[in-house]
Amino acid sequence: xxxxxxxxxxxxSLSSACTPSVTAVxxxxxxxxxCAGDLIFSDDFNEFDLEKWQHENTLxxxxxxxxQYYNNNRTNSFTNNGLLYIRPSLTEDQFxxxxxxxxRLNIEGGAPADRCTNPQWWGCERxxxxxxxxxxxxxxxxxxVDSFSFRYGTVEVRAKMPAGDWLWPAIWLMPAFNVYGxxxxxxxxxxxxxxxxxxxxxNGVHIGTQETGSTLHYGPYxxxxxxxRAHWLRRNTAGYDSQFHRYQVIWTPDLIRFSIDDVELGxxxxxxxxxxxxxxxxSNPNIENPWRFGSKMAPFDQKxxxxxxxxxxxxxxxxxxxxxxxxPKPWLNGSPTAATDFWNGRTNWLPTWRLDQxxxxxxxxxxxxxxxxxx
Length: 375
Ligand SMILES: *[C@@H]1O[C@H](CO)[C@@H](O)[C@H](O)[C@H]1NC(C)=O
Fold this sequence. Notes:
Layout: H1 2-17, E1 24-26, E2 39-43, E3 54-55, E4 68-70, E5 77-80, E6 83-86, E7 89-90, H2 91-95, H3 97-102, E8 104-106, E9 125-127, E10 137-139, E11 141-143, E12 149-151, E13 153-160, E14 167-175, E15 188-194, E16 201-202, E17 205-206, E18 211-217, E19 231-235, E20 245-251, E21 256-260, E22 263-268, H4 274-278, E23 304-312, H5 338-344, H6 346-353, E24 365-373
The structure holds 2-acetamido-2-deoxy-beta-D-glucopyranose.
């Protein structure tokens, strides 16, 4: 009887403790049931769990003609002592220098885990030439696209940014199902992005390792993207490469709020006109609002998955042409031979990556944990 009573009381307190959650989840590692406040996805990187983290395998360059080849290789991604490392290396080390300017690289593999993950922008096969060399850097981009996606929640990633000229680390979320159409109509949530240059100024401001940014991308089509109204920067003179920080986002049916180490960076709380009004798209009556049947948070009212990567360079202006760096930027963003120009400047940037010291830790994005809670 006593046991029975205890059991009933325990059950009663359990059920009363469960506040129903507005969070929704999908994926092989999504919990079947949970309450508000529960941890619903986490990785402490005590092992490298590729059931959670799928590697991208592509030459596509992220839509910005970035210079890396994302691959599944323990030179470029691994866990050690409870940390995940994403570490760039030279493509030439694997294929030799002659191959860079003349080889045909086809990365489509036969095994399910070896398939090319992005054929866009010549992403599965490229042929090198002296003016257009093959992607000169190998790196990694990991994603939870099959294992876990979620709508609304709290995310915290404890990470240390890499240092090294022209490195572009990112921890971000992309829409799992593109419910409002292709990018940027279904949104993009960039928790943290930074630049690896230790001493880079633009208009007198340090935009290298001393700066990080958080951004939302959203708009009816690529040329109409309201990111500038949802973009925040933070500075730290010690450099985000010198210590681990906790990068956080709280995402609810009312707001998206970015923080670092519990200090708010910025937030969006759209009114009833939603992101259409917030982005200023309502001024043009000829454009149809893809979110008109969604909630005021649309496109941020659908499920997103997590991505972590180290990109390099690119021609979209993330690395502006006019920067002041100890050694000049080796490519122009308008150059049709940008990757080759970048590679030809390697005597300047490669030493800054310090790949030969300490297992290349300086140039690595290091992640201690990823945690997501229901709200
Ligand atoms: C992994 O990368 C290293 C360094 O580039 C290379 O030597 C090795 O061949 C690669 N492994 C595979 C299986 O491609």
